[in-house]
Specification:
Layout (H helix, E strand, L loop, with lengths): L1 E5 L1 H6 E11 L3 H8 L3 E2 L4 E5 L2 E5 L2 E2 L7 H6 L6 E4 L2 H14 L2 E9 L4 E10 L2 H22 L1
Antiparallel strand pairs: 1-8, 2-7, 2-9, 3-6, 4-5, 5-7, 8-9
Length: about 150
């Protein structure tokens, strides 16, 4: 499994409740751009419309060696469809309504020659939770540093 893009801010800004693996519908030039790591998940989120899941604001830069006319017509942050089962979509929808959460993409990666997106149902952290997480990280670093010597 080769990780192509990672959303590091998601773990800091959100409390992850449950994770899912989804396929993603891409164009050929977008696949090549993803392989060369020319994409970003910062600010990306998912929504459910008509029992289908879509990812918005996922930025994939145009592939440089591709058809320039085709690349100029494509929007780098276009809406892309995520491929999930009906049961998974229903489960996510029920979970969202119950917990008042959002769907956040965590990473994109290769899985058996297919590009997958790991999405998570997440709840936004407040500032106190973020401060607590920073404090815990600093304490762990201090303990490692002390134990190292």
């Amino acid at each position: 499994m080769k990780i192509l893009v990672n959303n590091k801010k998601a773990f800091f800004n959100y409390e992850i409740l449950e994770k899912f693996e989804a396929g993603i519908s891409l164009l050929g030039c977008e696949v090549k751009a993803l392989i060369t790591s020319r994409s970003s998940l910062d600010g990306a989120f998912c929504i459910i419309r008509n029992n289908e899941v879509f990812i918005l604001n996922m930025h994939i830069s145009p592939y440089q060696h591709g058809d320039q006319n085709f690349n100029s017509q494509q929007n780098p942050t276009r809406t892309r469809k995520l491929l999930l089962n009906k049961n998974e979509i229903r489960k996510i929808d029920m979970f969202l309504k119950k917990h008042r959460a959002t769907i956040v993409p965590l990473k994109t990666y290769f899985n058996h020659k297919k590009i997958k997106v790991e999405i998570a149902i997440a709840r936004k952290k407040n500032n106190n939770d973020k401060r607590q997480a920073i404090k815990e990280k600093q304490e762990k670093r201090e303990m490692k540093r002390i134990l190292k010597y």
